[in-house]
Amino acid sequence: MPKIKMPKSSPSIDMTPMVDLAFLLVTFFMLAASFRSSEPVQVTTPTSVSDKIIPANILMVTVDKGGRVFFNMTNAEARRELLDNMSGKYKVGFTDKHREEFGFMESFGCTMRELPGYIGLSSEERGSARTLGIPYDSTNNELKDWIFYGNIAALNTGKTLFEEAKKKGDNPNVNDFKPKFILRVDSKTLYVQAQAVIDVFRDLNLNNLNFVTSMEMPPKK
Amino acid sequence: MAEIAEGGGGGHSKGKKRAKKGSTRVDMTPMVDLAFLLLTFFVLTSTFSKPKVMSLVYPAKIDNPTPDDGPKINNAITFLLSEDKIFYYSGQYYPKSAPGPKGPTKLEETDFGPSGVRKLLAEGNEFVLSGKIELQKKLDKKQIQDSVYINMLTDLKKKDKALKVLIKTDDKATCKNFIDLIDELKIAEIGVVAPVEIMASELELLKEKLK
After folding, report:
1. CA of A205: which chain B residue's CA is closest?
2. Which of A2, A141, B193, B202 has the fewest CB atoms found within 10 Å of its own CB?
3. Domain B76-125+163-210, CATH among 3.30.420, 3.30.30, 1.10.3470, 1.10.287
4. Residue pLDDT, tens place only, B36-71
């Protein structure tokens, strides 16, 4: 019987396939990842079966757990127009730098008076700054003005974008360019607090609202 | 690669230094470490589920609401939400002072589970749901087009026989409760949804129930 000779081999394993796989996964996750934006407020949205994605031209109002209200909108151009209108109405001056910065800012939740100071902060400082939210009570309804002027500004930019798309020869749908109103509420927000914000929208005759939700599996048939 | 150096530390014992045959292999361990570190980082930080939106059309505000503006539709169900609890009554509201044919309105309790609200709505909205299935069949057989299907479904939801839903909340209800209910309404294909202000007498009924 021949003697079984154990091959003398080094105790190392060829790791190349594993490394290949690891890098493949790294690449995949790097490209697929969408990072959480540095919003000043973290909100856990409720779940729903809805599969509509967030449209492009939006005005977003966030209501956090404690009922603080934050405002945000897309399109830097529209935001600057909005800021100009608001500064005219509330007699709060903004420098050109402030205007520039405001165009790229995330949600903010402070009064008009605090706003120049808030814009002056760096984005990290904004995250930790405790603001009290945009006031929306009947004596000082700044939220209403933000939404009102925001709507006008968003309509204007939407119009220009629509004209551009038309010139390009596409067949755009007007409704895609109209601003949509998004309400981002925390699951634990009391509905009465959300309702107060909804009433502000309704006062402006904006009745079609969208709630941000995270995906949930629809029930099986 | 992660290789264990063989043959002792460079001829320390024999004294004579021999030129080692240089291996063409590079030690990849640090790179692999880094790769896995990055992998872990990206796996943990990435959020895949993009947020979705659920649209809801609120009734327009009326400038001078008349006190007797309550909906006079019979095929309606009213949900009353409180903290993680849900109650309902169907049809018209009859206060204790003016009881209807079946006496004053009583609240029934249900839950957010599949056997609670969903079953209730599915039974109540049988008309639309069965109509939808028929439309779906036609669509599958290519008898009608997509746009026609959507229009017909919207019309169907607005018919008198379709169930209408009113939502009332007390001051303890959370947005999660509200959205959950709206979600159930979407599943049950309810076309007419109206979030309305709760009446004082209903609030009393609700408080009694919650005790």
Report:
1. B60
2. A2
3. 3.30.420
4. 898 888 888 776 667 788 888 888 877 665 554 455
